[in-house]
Design goal:
Rossmann fold; 7-stranded mixed β-sheet; 6 helices; 7 strands
Length: about 200
């Protein structure tokens, strides 16, 4: 089953990680540079930790979450090499609202939402809402928008209208656009979004 840590751990051990672009996400790197103050960030399904470590290098207070043991090990090694302070948690992201409440300024999402079973998406959104501070932001890249959820996965496709309708129950839309900074293989297949907790 794709919703187990064992399933994902096999991918990390084998190196079969189609979602891993091998470095920080250009869209997020540009976005984080708009902040002059340091913020608390939670990166969901952080994988090898490229974005989490990039944010921490810039001075932000970062919590990186993944439930695959090899991903967590890789992040810890990378953080040690970079000599940065980062909180790395091995946990199923759907349990985070049992650990944190009103904790983070920003939740960062990329290729995690599409990895969970679509029937769990509303639970994911509720969890994000609960762990964000008041007026906190959900900053994400929704991918793949060119695939129907009914086609199976992971990655499970994202139908934009129904997905936005789910988020609108808890958030207001600040930004919604296709980014010129998307990696080449994902251009026109994803949208960059910023939602604010209401």
């Amino acid at each position: 089953m794709h919703n187990t840590s064992e399933y994902w751990d096999k991918s990390y051990k084998s190196g079969q990680m189609a979602w891993d672009i091998g470095g920080p996400t250009p869209v997020f790197n540009e976005w984080i540079n708009t902040y002059n103050n340091f913020i608390s960030i939670c990166v969901l399904g952080a994988g090898n930790g490229w974005d989490a470590i990039n944010f921490a290098k810039k001075g932000h207070f970062v919590t990186a979450v993944d439930f695959a043991p090899t991903a967590v090990k890789n992040m810890r090694l990378a953080a040690k090499r970079s000599e940065i302070n980062i909180s790395i948690l091995r946990e199923n992201i759907l349990n985070l609202n049992k650990i944190y409440t009103n904790k983070f300024n920003v939740i960062v999402e990329y290729t995690c939402f599409c990895a969970i079973d679509p029937k769990n998406r509303i639970n994911y959104i509720k969890m994000v809402y609960e762990i964000l501070k008041p007026n906190g932001k959900f900053v994400g890249i929704l991918f793949p928008i060119d695939k129907a959820a009914s086609e199976g996965g992971p990655p499970f496709g994202i139908e934009l209208k129904s997905t936005l309708d789910l988020f609108k129950k808890y958030f207001r839309i600040i930004k919604y656009e296709k980014s010129l900074l998307s990696v080449e293989s994902r251009k026109d297949r994803e949208v960059f979004v910023i939602f604010e907790k209401v």
